[in-house]
Every structure is written in C-alpha cells, then in structure tokens.
Design brief:
heterodimer, A: about 70 residues, mainly alpha, 4 helices, about 60% helix, B: about 500 residues, alpha+beta, six-stranded antiparallel β-sheet, four-stranded mixed β-sheet, 16 helices, globular
Chain lengths: ~70, ~500
C-alpha cells in the first residue's frame, strides 16, 4: 500500500539522528585517501581553467541590472 | 479549475568582454544574437500583443518611452520556437513553451548551448571585440541583479488573492532547493543560498527592476485572456543543475495546480514574507523558524513538507499530471536529504555543489574567505563554456547528476517541442523561412506575396502542436498552400 504523505515526513530522518555507519567501517582510511586524491585532482584541474588574475577579473565583472 | 501547466523560462545572461571593458553591453548583447542568427534570418519578433505594464490586479501603468526601440535592437525567433533577443543590457533567451518540466530542462540547456556558440562566434565575426564570456547567474556581486523568470499557464478564474496567499510561502521557502548559492554576507561561512533573495523588497507588485516583488503581477497572458493567466515568477535563481531546474519548475507547477483547485488545505501565510525571504537565504543550518500569521512557527523545510504532502495527495487522487510522480519523488528525496545532511545533495543542488567546491578549495589552498579566487569560483561556476565553466568541470568529474541527454539538448537547439504551439512557430520558420514575416508567442504572420500579410493567431498554447499541424506542414508545398490548408 502506498504510504500517505504524512508518513513521508515522519519517516524523514532528523539530522540529530546518527546515520548508520556500517559502510564506513569497511576500508575507511582507504576511501578517505581516495576521496582526497579525487578532490586534489579536481582542484588542480580547476586551477588550470580559472581565469587569470582573479582579483582584476572579478572586479571588472560589472553588469547593469536587467528585467 | 486546473489547466495544464504549460511552462517556459526566460534567462537574462551576464556578459563580459574582458579585453574590451569599454564595449557597451547592449551592443555586445546584440552582437551575440546577430552572430548566432546570421544574415539570412528575416523573421522578426512581433511586439503586437505585448503588455508588460498591464497589472493582474486590473489596472495599467504608463509605459516608458523608447522601451520598444531598445528591445527591438535584436530580437529573433529560432527554429526551435525560442526567442533570442536583447533586453536592455543583457542577452536574453526565452525557451519555447513546453508541456512538461523535463522538456523545459532540455530547452533551457539548449539556450545555454546557443549562448555558448554565440560567444564563440562573436570574435570570429567581429574583429577587435576579443573574447566574450557569458554567465548564467543573477548578480555581479556589486549591486546589480538580472533575472531568470518562470512562466506558468494558470486558469484565469483563479482569484489572484488566492495565488498571492498560497504561493508566497512556497516561493519564500523553495530557495532551499532552487538557490544557486552566492559568496558574501556576514555569516560563517560568508555564503547565501540564493543569488536573488536579497534583491527583493516587496510582497506583490508589477515592478521587475526596482522594489522587486516576490509575486509579480504582470498580466500578459500571451494566450486567450478570458481563459488564461500567465503567472510570471521572477524570484527564482538561474540554475546550472538540471535537477534543480526540474525540481524548481515541477514543484511550482504542482503547487499552482493545488491553488487552482483550492486544495492546499491550510493557510500558510507568513507574518513577514520579505524578511523571511532574506533570512531563508542566509540560514545554511536550515533550522531557523518563521512566524505565520496564525501564530505558528515553522522551518523552511516544514513549509516545503506541507506543500509536498498536499501535492502528493493531489497526484495520488487524480493520477495526473503525467510527470507528477517523478517530480514528487525528487522533491521528497531532496527534502529528506536536506533534513539529514545537505552535503548529500552536492550532486543535485547548485548552492550545495558550489559551497562544497568553495570549502574544499579554501581548505586545500589554505586561503581566507576574502581571497579573490573564491569570488572567481563563485562567478565561474556559471560560465556557460563547457571547458571553462566550473559547473561543467564538476559534471565532467562525475560530481553532478544529469536529467537529460546531450543528444536531446543538441536537437532542441534546432527543433521545437512537439506538444505545444511552439511547434507551429518553429516548424514554419524551418520550412518556410522567407514567408514568415514575424511571429510572437500567440501568432505567426506570413508574407506570401499578397497585398496583405496573413496573421495566424494561436490563443491556445497546446494547439498548433505536431499532432495537429505536422501533417499539414508535411503536405504543404509552400506557405500559401499551408494557409489554405489551415483554412485562413
């Protein structure tokens, strides 16, 4: 039977409740290392595409209001 | 009574010519439009029937002199049924009318591709202009804001005060998933959920540039005015995330169906909507509460759960709209994620994706929040170039989810949606480009060499679709024959 709309909200986990951590126990340090490496790779890539001279670029981005 | 939710998006893009800061932005916008369209394009936008100063509350404001001349600078119709034009100092792309939120996401992304292509073409065609960069965002961070407006077909019989009462709390609190994120403010981190929220100062009104209202009253249906209203929602952020656009439009369309049928079931009116709009944008904890007129206090998420529940009951009872269940499912997953841990939605919501990237960059590079590189990341997230835009770098790294395919997006840069009158507009332009003299949202005007131009009115947004006019367009050898077949 379909859940009622009210049940949806009641079933929604509260942020105060700890999430089950079973997955985390397996190879945690390995996963964290891999995650760190992924982030480093992404940030290096972002440095490559970021516009040069950030300060000047951001300062000169001036728009007129629209709509 | 509820009417089908025909939907559209109008996006004003931010533009910059880094090598030539002296260039007039209106001229630069016109160069983008004309470079994309090329010299062969003849059909112009038809301004007959445009009444941006007509108010839904039943009166009219005097019109500014010269407004039409300026917007007429460059305004064209594309074969996909969209309108591409200059609005004051910005290039603007209005998607064709779509019959469901997913198709609208496809056409919204097609607009991004058209702006990306335009920006690449300008320096090739116009010597001395240099490179042009286009941003799908809503503020320059220096006090200027430009919009991403949503349009929804609504039953004219729905009392406007009911729309104001029942839609306002929804628009104020939906930021938690529609926000595109913005660096700045006094918080820690100095970040806001919405690009647009703090530019809004009024609850209801006709303005779009000064004293912007949460509920805009522009009454310009672009359809049969006795049957329809086109609700013009100006308070939303432009989204890069396909899922965020889908959820923004889908959830708003469901809430409007509820309002038309008067099925919200409770009065959620806020004590101070404008103040709440600003606070929701600044509350990254999502835990603050907002006072209702009836004395209750609720979190932004509680408002959203109430709208979701009423919408779910509606869809379960009616078995429609056909896209309803998919929108409800994403809406529910999003609220669950926001309750549990917003980081779970860093592949779905723009504000979360951007905040995560800013935090990671700041920590790894060991820089302060005031570092210009973070302000640049905030801006470049919205760059429409797929090799440079940071949203697109996240997408390529597998950190953002997609809803539609690139094949669909590319097709939508040329072909109109099949389900609405946009099909007739776009297909006529494709088939008979020299015979279409002008077009508007609700008409196409032909010049078939006779003394008088022939105007084909389209007051019904769901007529003129492929099923109805496709066979006639196939059969007609020229525009004159098409008009005969149409019986006009």
């Amino acid at each position: 039977m379909a859940r009622t709309a009210g049940e949806r909200r009641r079933e929604a986990p509260s942020r105060q409740t700890e999430a089950p951590a079973t997955e985390e126990k397996v190879g945690t340090s390995e996963r964290v290392e891999r995650l760190k490496k992924d982030i480093d790779e992404l940030l290096d890539e972002i440095d490559e595409v970021l516009e040069e001279n950030a300060e000047e670029f951001v300062r000169s981005y001036v728009q007129k209001g629209g709509e | 009574m509820a009417v089908p939710k025909v939907v559209g998006l109008e996006t004003e893009y931010g533009i910059s010519s880094p090598g030539r800061p002296d260039l007039n932005p209106s001229l630069l916008s016109a160069l983008l439009v004309t470079s994309f369209v090329g010299p062969g394009q003849r059909a112009r936008w038809d301004f007959e029937g445009e009444h941006p100063t007509r108010d839904a509350r039943g009166f009219e404001r005097p019109r500014e002199e010269g407004a039409e001349e300026e917007t007429g600078l460059a305004s064209v119709i594309l074969t996909n049924g969209a309108r591409y034009y200059v609005d004051h100092a910005h290039p603007e792309y209005s998607t064709p009318e779509c019959a469901d939120p997913r198709t609208l996401v496809v056409h919204d992304k097609a607009g991004e591709r058209i702006l990306e292509a335009s920006a690449a073409l300008v320096p090739m065609i116009h010597e001395g202009v240099g490179r042009v960069v286009v941003y799908k965002n809503n503020t320059d961070g220096k006090g200027a804001s430009y919009g991403c407006h949503e349009n929804y077909l609504v039953d004219r019989a729905t009392p406007f005060p009911r729309i104001v009462r029942d839609l306002m709390p929804f628009l104020v609190t939906r930021q938690v998933f529609t926000g595109s994120g913005r660096l700045g403010g006094a918080g820690d981190p100095p970040f806001q959920i919405s690009q647009r929220a703090e530019f809004f100062e009024a609850e209801v009104g006709l303005e779009t540039t000064l004293k912007r209202p949460i509920i805009n009253t522009r009454d310009e249906p672009h359809a049969d005015p006795d049957k329809y209203r086109r609700l013009h929602v100006i308070v939303g952020d432009a989204n890069m995330s396909e899922l965020a656009t889908y959820l923004k439009v889908g959830s708003t369309a469901l809430v409007l169906l509820l309002i038309e049928e008067d099925l919200l079931g409770q009065d959620l009116s806020l004590e101070s909507p404008v103040e709440a709009l600003h606070r929701v944008s600044r509350d990254l904890s999502l835990k603050e509460t907002y006072s209702l007129k009836d004395g209750r206090k609720m979190r932004a998420l509680d408002f959203q759960w109430s709208y979701l529940e009423a919408s779910a009951e509606y869809v379960e009872a009616r078995g429609e709209p056909p896209w309803g269940k998919e929108v409800l499912s994403l809406w529910e997953r999003t609220l669950v994620g926001l309750e549990r841990d917003p980081w779970e939605l860093s592949d779905t919501l723009d504000w979360v994706a951007k905040l995560r990237l800013l935090q990671e960059y700041r920590e790894r590079r060991g820089i302060a929040w005031g570092d210009a590189r973070l302000a640049l990341i905030d801006l470049q997230y919205h760059d429409v170039r797929r090799e440079k835009g940071l949203y697109y770098r996240l997408l390529a790294a597998g950190r953002m989810r997609r809803l539609v395919t690139e094949e669909e997006v590319v097709r939508a840069t040329r072909e109109p949606p099949a389900e609405t009158r946009a099909y007739f507009r776009g297909a006529c332009l494709e088939r008979f480009p020299t015979a279409v003299s002008s077009a508007s949202w609700d008409s196409v005007t032909f010049d078939v060499g006779e003394e008088a131009l022939k105007r084909v009115p389209m007051p019904e947004p769901l007529r003129g679709n492929k099923a109805l006019v496709g066979p006639l367009l196939e059969k007609a050898r020229d525009a004159a024959e098409l008009l005969t077949l149409l019986g006009s």
